[in-house]
Amino acid sequence: EPAGSADSLDPLPPRGFLAIYLSGDRVIGAAGVGRSQEIVAVHELMRLRQLPTAAAARAGVDWLSELKSTC
Question: How far is it, in rounded angstroms, from Cα 42 to Cα 63?
């Protein structure tokens, strides 16, 4: 539901977000909106036990490329 008022609306396109949850040097979870491909990639990497380190996640892992490199 919108907040505020304006004579005309010029909305930004949705960009989504991806949150990666870390514990120590391990990736332990992910959540997001509008980033389902990345969420699926993180899930599959978890299943395969092939997740990158927390340091790599902080540096900005390309989750889809990471998954492709494990196959």
Answer: 7
* Structure-block tokens of residue 37: 């491909």
Q: What is the rounded CA–CA span in Å between residue 38 and residue 31? A: 9
- Tell me if residue 13 falls in helix, strand or coil: coil
Is residue 8 within 8 A of residue 16, CB to CB? The reply is no
Structure tokens of 65? 């490329």
> DSSP 3-state assignment of 56?
helix
Using CA atoms, how far apart are residues 18 and 9, in angstroms rounded to an integer?
26
Give the span between the Cα atoms of 35 and 38, in whole angstroms. 6
pTM for the predicted model, two decimal places: 0.75
Q: Identify the residue with better confidence: 17 or 14.
A: 17
